[in-house]
Amino acid sequence: MATFDVFVVGSGGGPSYFLKPSGSSWQDGIIALDAGSGLGALNRLLTAHPEVFAPPSDTEEDAPTTPTAAQVNSWIQCYLITHPHLDHINGLVLSAGSAKGPSKPVRGTQETLEVIADVFAGKLWPALASWTETPNAAYHLSPLLLDDDYVPVTDSISVRTFPLSHGTPPDAPTYASSAFALRHIPSSRELLFLGDVEPDAVATEPQNSALWRAAAPKIPHALSAVFIECSWPEGRADALLYGHLSPAHLADELAVLAREVVAARERAQADGGADQPRKRRRKGVSDPEVDVRGALAGLRVFITHCKDDLQGVYDRPIHEVIAGQVRELVEERELGAQIVAVEQGMLICASP
Ligand SMILES: [Zn+2]
Ligand SMILES: [Zn+2]
Q1: Which residues share a beta bridge with 111?
Q2: Of 70, 79, 207, 239, which residue is the least packed, with the fewest Cβ within 10 Å?
Q3: Each residue of 76-122: pLDDT tens digit?
Q4: CA of residue 83 to ligand 1 center, whole Å
Q5: Distance (Å) from CA 231 to ligand 2 centroid
Q6: CA 166 / ligand 1 centre spacing (Å)
Q7: According to the UniProt record, where is the region Disordered (predicted)?
């Protein structure tokens, strides 16, 4: 049985994902992962996919009624924001005025929330967010620390936050983004969701390998779904990545993850069989001789955030083009991961 259900409210232009534990209904509570798309997108999606959010009906005659966008929005229990770029918070900001009921927690790093607080400072937009729970605010900002802890964000889900690098503009510090490891508390199963991210090979402050090292021991039994961006198609020059991934770089990152998985399994085996003499030299993670074939079997990698093909270069949707390019590179290396193109309106049952 799947652990999480994820509905894609927006993937390319306005990344926004609704997540819930598979056993519960959307009405029981939604975690919004980024909030780039708002009520308008949700409204269109409800027309196209009325079945997704309809509550289960008791009898066949009793046809379920489709909830409104405002109703579905009201089921959001918590927002998790990877970084405060406009394409990731647009929906959060624009929906603030229509929010009903008690203020909802908006969670992210202190750095992310400070930028969001600036948006709601009363000039760019009304003061609808606060650092404390107050009756008149739509949101209250509640920071997540970048440490090893899993913090409960709902009754059944806890989150660990990892720092990511998202490009270094000229004469400016590296732009900070983050990744969330979401843990389903009852089953201890996880889903990994990355915000915008650049390759370690290009970054001034490489941070991805630490994330892969933490994730590796859980693959695939406790972690079998990773959401990661691949903004550009193949052939994009490193100097023009602007803090994002391209297929070749994403394949390299997945190869690092695969090496970490192999290393984690060797460690686990060595710990388990301490009486047996070591038969062969332990290979380091950076050792190119490490056999990574099949290391990511059972892992699904969901490709998000593909930038629109505004020049009309491709005859297929850009997310299919990019995911296809990633798939080819991952298959060439026989890493074993399944590559999935994410598109708006998709309902994903994230296993195991
Ligand atoms: Zn960004
Ligand atoms: Zn973005």
Answers
A1: none
A2: 239
A3: 999 999 999 999 999 999 999 888 888 999 999 999 999 999 999 99
A4: 7
A5: 8
A6: 7
A7: 267-287
